[in-house]
Amino acid sequence: MSVQNINVALIGNPNTGKTSVFNQLTGLNQQVGNYPGITVEKKIGFCKLPNNIKANILDLPGTYSLNASSMDESVVIELLLNKNDKLYPDVAVVVTDVENLKRNLLIYTQIKDLEIPTILVINMSDRMERKGISLDIPYLEEKLKTKIALVSSRKGLGIEELKELIVSYKNITHEPCLNASVIDPEYFEKLKHAFPNQLMYKLWLVITQDVNFSNLDRNEVRSTFTKSHSELKRLQQKETIKRYQFINDVLKEGLKVDASLAKDIRAKLDRVLTHKVWGYFIFFAILFLIFQSIFSWSTIPMDFIDSTFASLSSWVAEELPSGILTDLLSQGIIPGIGGVIIFIPQIAFLFLFISILEESGYMSRVVFLMDKIMRRFGLSGKSVVPLISGTACAIPAIMATRNIENWKERLITILVTPFTTCSARLPVYAIIISLVVPSKRIFGFLNVQGLTLMALYVLGFFAAILSAYILNKVLKLESKTYFVVEMPSYKMPLLKNVGINVVEKTKAFIVGAGKIILAISVILWFLASYGPGKEFNDAENIVKERFANTTLDETQFENEVNSQKLENSYIGLMGRAIEPAIQPLGYDWKIGIALISSFAAREVFVGTLATIYSVGDTDNESTIKSKMQAEVRPDTGKKVFDFATGISLLLFYAFAMQCASTLAITKKETNSWKWPAMQLVFMSALAYFTALIAYQLLK
Amino acid sequence: MIQEIIAFTILGIAVAFLVKKYFFKSKKKKDCGDGNCGCS
Fold it and tell me: Which of A322, A571, A576, B24 sits most deeply, having the most CB atoms within 10 A of its CB?
């Protein structure tokens, strides 16, 4: 009886134990070489099977799908599309990891659709008990239209069964998993008509993949059936979604994971951290600790920075020759820059905690937990990532929505992400909270200021999901995307990674914001130091006339002149022009100027106030906080930053779209001015009316 | 006099910087999907 040679291709995602299976099948009968012309390693082994069959086992490079994005992946596709290749497989063996079956099955369904006889190997079966996993093999075989080998390549279990399945590969059906025409029925109908003898899915790969093969005239196919790059991408995404829908449906019945039966530490931790009650409780406890720490630990370095800048202003004013440049430095530039540097400790602590949560693997559990809430509000599970990364900056967060396939879900996520409390809001919150919320503790350990900060973060999050709920109803979502999140194992955060992350993100914030604040501080100082007309230029005589019957000492007189000048400066006139609109919110014209200038970026608010309060201030040694604390309303003599105004400001900044860069990125991502305009109007109106109601109720 | 020249030059630079940043944004060739876009 002659020996029958067959080709067996081992295919699978990286880290599924494919090479271990290869080693188990071939032993030492291996040859290692390179694919012609490229440096991708080619491993071929030989295996004697029953019935006088000799199998050439080809260990192909690990690949996630047949959508080639690397040379390794191209090698796999080229082989599978080219029947003339001497290594073209008689049977494909797709190796999967029992813990990541959902993701691993994507490539299986693609290979099956090429109508190559395919055996499914579910590897690492020895871990099933520990993980509480059970599989309904007959059900999976029926739905996936294949034969399954349950294998533990590390322990050598199931290898003989796999060999038997390879021997009887001819019994495996060629039936595909997904009918390719569902990707775009009209388009595939035309394809079928033009190439009646070709496999639809193969044609689709020819059109979408930039790979070489010999038995089809690719130029002919592509020139007749070409589509724009973006349209092809969209269809590829649609294909992936359809495949995951199929996989989800199959695994819903065929794979059961009972976390309560799992025995390893990761599973035990996951059982608690993703628990439907304890999971949320722990998450909020961690958030609570973070915000308490941000306030408690940053106090000392912040006070140090604040007093250092105050001393620097004073030193510059005293030591440099008097003149316009000295005033610009001491009253404009130094207080303005101090207004952003002071927040380095709080921002660094925030990023430190976020980095630790990300590095430890806990953040993925948070994404998983929050997905359950998101779905109730019509958002995709994938929306969690932009909403969480929005705590740093809305701009990369909006860019991160690109992985949401469904356009409407993506649009909603883009529109609501700016509600998430970004790091630019932190300086505003921090200074206002420290002014109007008492620094006391309740129950001996709960810092009220920290609690207020946490409440503002939670408020931003709920504003985002409630807005999403409204938008979901208005925009009428028709379909949803599937949410796939890979849970990384828990690990001790690497100090180096955390350190780099904190430094990079804090630097990006300080450098980015610092340049804008510096420029705005300079302009504001000029606008506050010059003014039109007699009221400004003749300020001294006007004050003399006003206080003709009162005795003022030199300092009092100087303060009155400075006050008269500031009110009649260019910025004073602008501020007073908008005062009627903002007075019902509890703001004076100086706060109004800060609101306008902070439209460019929220963090400019504190720097603006620091500059405005510094112009003409005779006491250069005052800190930003003490200047704001000392500010009184001229008509009533009451403090400007009282509780009612403070809460009104906090709510205004929680909801207002005070960021020109976010509007620009929304325009770029939606390719329309309509959506950023809507974002601006909705958020501004919400901010104005919430602040108005809060002030009117609390004053 | 020298102080005025320097101060008004700084003002000019500040105005030019903001105008360039918000009205004449340079188009980046590559996007920065990983979030490291250096935005403030």
Answer: A571
Which of A323, A513, A523 minimises the CB distance to B40?
A: A513
Determine, yes or no, domain membership for A481.
Answer: no
- CB atoms closer than 10 angstroms to residue A156: 12
| B36 vs B40: CA distance, rounded Å | 11
> Could you tell me where the DSSP H helices lie in A361-447?
362-376, 384-389, 394-399, 407-416, 425-436
Backbone phi and psi for residue A672, each to the nearest 5 degrees, phi listed first: -160, 145
- Return the structure tokens found at A20: 């271990």
Distance in angstroms between the alpha carbons of the first and the last residue of chain B: 36
- pLDDT tens digits, residue range A454-493? 899 999 989 998 998 888 888 765 554 555 555 666 777 7
Does B33 contact A at CB distance below 8 Å? Answer: yes
Q: Chain A residue closest to B6 (CA)?
A: A325
- Both A196 and A85 in a single domain? yes
User: Rounded mean pLDDT of A493-521?
Assistant: 79
Look at residues A304, A489, A485, A476 and name the one whose alpha carbon lies nearest to residue A406: A476
pLDDT tens digits along A334-371: 877 877 787 788 778 878 888 888 778 787 788 788 77
Q: Do A694 and A647 touch, CB atoms closer than 8 A?
A: yes
Is residue A172 a contact partner of residue A91, using CB atoms and an 8 Å limit? yes
Chain A CB within 8 Å of residue B6 CB:
yes
Mutate to test the interface with A, among B23, B28, B34, B40 (most CBs of A within 10 A): B40
Enumerate the H helices of A209-277 as residue ranges.
Answer: 218-224, 229-254, 265-273
Asked if residue A594 has pLDDT above 90, the reply is no
Q: Does residue A273 sit within a domain?
A: no
- Supply the range of the domain harboring residue A182: 4-261
Q: In chain B, how many H helices and how many E strands?
A: 1, 0
- Give the β-pairing of A147-150 and A446-447: unpaired
Contact between chains at A399 and B37 (C-beta distance less than 8 A): yes
Kindly state whether B29 is in contact with chain A, defined as any CB-CB distance less than 8 angstroms.
no
Determine how β-strand A118-123 pairs with β-strand A91-97. Answer: parallel
Is the per-residue pLDDT at A284 higher than 80? yes
| pLDDT in the model for residue A405 | 62
Question: Percent helix, strand and coil across chain A, each rounded to 5?
Answer: 65, 10, 25
CA distances from A671 to A49, A663, A664, A665 (A): 60, 12, 10, 9
pTM given for the model: 0.58
Q: Which of A475, A497, A526 is at the close of a domain?
A: A475
Residues A247 and A299 in one domain: no
Residues of B with Cβ-Cβ distance to A393 under 8 angstroms: 35, 39-40
**Which distant-in-sequence residues (6+ apart) come within 8 Å of A127 by Cβ?**
A98, A99, A133
Q: Does residue A622 fall inside a structural domain? A: yes
- A399 and B14: CB-CB below 8 Å? no
Residue A485 has what pLDDT?
A: 59
Residue A54 phi, psi (nearest 5)? -115, 120
ipTM above 0.95, yes or no: no
Asked if the Cβ–Cβ distance from A523 to B34 is below 8 Å, we say: no
A477, A469 contact by CB (below 8 A): no
User: A690 lies in a domain?
Assistant: yes
Q: What is the CATH number of the domain that holds A223?
A: 3.40.50.300
Looking at the structure, tell me whether residues A344 and A242 fall in a common domain: no
Rounded to the nearest angstrom, the minimum Cα separation between A699 and chain B is 34
**How many CB pairs below 8 Å do chains A and B form together?**
78
- B40–chain A Cβ distance below 8 A for any pair: yes
Among B4, B15, B39, whose Cβ lies nearest the Cβ of A395? B39
Look at residue B33 and tell me whether its pLDDT is greater than 50: no
